[in-house]
Write a structure and sequence with these properties.
The complex is a heterodimer. Helix content of chain A is 0%, strand content 59%. Chain A contains no helices and 11 strands. In chain B, 0% of the residues lie in helices and 50% in strands. The chains are: A mainly beta, B mainly beta.
């Protein structure tokens, strides 16, 4: 069974801090890893990673994948209160028709 | 920007009743999904759907569940005889080949409460 473990489970920081969220996985025939941000309801897509060592970047957010060590990190620099959310990591196996297997999420709280 | 929409936002039903949750995926997307999230738990995959057929389903998606694309825009999830444990947030998602099948865009969800 595919497994995704995120750490830490929760994190409290102040505006301007930099945070690193971790996602480790075990999946048969890995195809992709995705990061989502979940505020009040729907998960919002952030990144999809398929290759090791290639950083994906969007504004203050960036992510990288290590397929040898089976993990990914999501970095947020200069955090803002609007970054407060649950960050979800999900993996897809190669034989799948798009089934995302999610981790339990990291709750990020950014105080002013 | 195109988005996935879902109706209703909240559905309350009695145990044993049938419910239909509705979704309008992004218009040029070809792959459709349902997920659920029980309060305080992980988001769980239910089913994927392509070309008017179920592509993959989870163990949760038993005979009580069915999906349908009744026309060119809607995608529905039916639960035939609801149980208390079906209470959850149900998310619809869609993706398209050009963006990558795995890059799924989620709707705002329907909160189902079974009494």
């Amino acid at each position: 069974e595919d497994k995704v473990v995120q750490s830490p489970l929760s994190l409290v920081v102040h505006e301007g801090d930099t945070v690193t969220l971790n996602c480790s996985y075990e999946v048969t025939n890995f195809r992709s890893l995705l990061w989502y941000k979940q505020e009040k309801k729907a998960p919002t897509f952030l990144f999809m990673l398929t290759s090791s060592g290639i950083e994906k970047k969007s504004g203050r957010l960036s992510s990288i994948l290590d397929k040898k060590e089976l993990f990914s990190i999501l970095n947020i620099t200069a955090t803002q209160t609007g970054d407060s959310a649950v960050y979800l990591c999900a993996v897809v196996r190669g034989t799948s028709y798009g089934k995302l297997t999610f981790g339990q999420g990291t709750i990020l709280t950014v105080h002013p | 920007e195109p988005e996935v929409t879902q109706t209703p936002s909240h559905q309350v039903t009695q145990m044993g009743q049938e419910v239909i949750l509705r979704c309008v995926p992004i218009s040029n997307h070809l792959y459709f999904y349902w997920y659920r999230q029980i309060l305080g738990q992980k988001v769980e995959f239910l089913v994927s759907f392509y070309n008017n057929e179920i592509s993959e389903k989870s163990e949760i998606f038993d005979d009580q569940f069915s999906v349908e694309r009744p026309d060119g825009s809607n995608f529905t999830l039916k639960i035939r005889s609801t149980k208390l444990e079906d209470s959850a947030m149900y998310f619809c998602a869609s993706s398209d080949p050009s963006g990558g099948r795995d890059t799924q865009y989620f709707g705002p969800g329907t909160r189902l409460t079974v009494l």
